[in-house]
Fold each of these.
Amino acid sequence: MAWIGTAFRFVILLSLLASWIGMLIPAFPAPTVMWALTLLYGLSAGFGTLGAICFGVITVLTIFSWFVDNILGLAGARKGGAQGWSLLIAPVVGLVTSILLTPIVGILLTGLSLFFAEWYLKKDWRLAWHATRAMLIGWGSAVAVRLVIGALIIALWAIWAWH
């Protein structure tokens, strides 16, 4: 019956890899899905000391990943010259529309609201576009960071599962 445990680990591994690739899809909560998969593994196979440590680090990485998009996106916008009010308005619009409509709409409206807020404040669409483009570049950087976080989650789980 050892093959059942091996098969289960491979199913979890394939699911983790699919979730990692899913980080390229906007608004897909890949780190959270990966965290849930490792929790499922821990509840099924047991945690033990190594598992508890790995799962604790995975949890911290997951929480950090939740903030990466906003931190890097807003930092990029700030670097691109966005003003404080725009940096307050855009994430609020994005959060509200993500909840009320869909996360994809929330992403689109975050960018649009930053652009229009900057345009209103600066009366120059080129400066507004510069700040919005900088935010989009920041979001691209966030994807790269999230891919690294996902790879770390997979590595930690593999150490735990195949120790």
Amino acid sequence: MLRVFSLTFLFLIVCLSGFPQSGRQKGYSESVSRGERVDAPVSKIDPNSKSINSVGNSDSDIIRVETDLVTIPVRVTTKRGQPVPDIKQAEFRIFENGVEQEVAYFSTQDEPFTVALMLDMSYSSVFKLAEIQDAALAFVNQLRKDDKVMVVSFDEKVRVLCLPTDNRKALRYAIEGAKIASGTSLYAAFDKVLNENFRNVPGRKAIVILTDGVDTTSVTKKAADVIRDIDELDTLIYPIQYDTFDDVRKSRRNDAQILYDDDDRPYVVESPLVKGEKEGDYAEAREFLQDLASHTGGRVQRVSSTTNLNSAFARIADELRKTYSLGYYPSNEKTPGQKYSIRVRVYRPDLDIRARDNYSTARKRL
């Protein structure tokens, strides 16, 4: 009798242990690191537990914060991409380096945004000025009435056409004031918006930028500087990218000179490639814009026509209306420049969660 009882007891221990169980569904959904499989194994925990055993730790998707409060924009959808609007604060969990943190800040989808609308006004744009202005105006009109928007245009120079406001008439005048010119100081434009305009703006923030991503005229700023800056702020970034490589190559062919050799045979001479004309420049641009989105929880929209452009703006406006924000005060003291992993869980199954997965405490500034 004692032997039967012991065997039964051992059998129950095995069944209740952490061995994989085929067909068993998790009771929660979790954000994943960039490049990680959505179905990657994670440790099972109870919703009331204060720690977990395994959390991804990627070097990407980092934010650096000046204050103790770490804030994270979170987008929650079904597997079919439909937003889930009714999640309560108690259903969210945040883990830093595997240790659960108390959710100290919770902002619903109804909280307003401050949005920087950045428009690339260089000659290389595949869209005409009127098309860009019409799409930008339509985007502003799709935002909520209490969302504030600032308008920035950039070519070789960076121009703040309108500081953050909810005055739609002022925004219309600002967008209609954008003009096409030469050069593309993309990195300098980000530097101005992030460090001069957004660093001290409270609440939820987002940047929507229309560009090909190729910088040709920034003097003191590089792509790495922009990534470092966005890692310090809790700002979503949504790049709308168009590809100008074919147009640039076509323009070069049209500008090529036809010369003749000593036997009067024609040959074509093209000028040396400059910044913004090389295939590698466009590969770097794609990587840069993808990094902007991945580091902040946004998403790149790639467009090739006016219809695509309008649809991209509409999708972004819709996502901004359906984004949660979470915040917590880290439970341990931090070392400047140290990286920490973040995971966000929602205790409902079969959901997709898009959020940052790392942050780093701010380095000391000189």
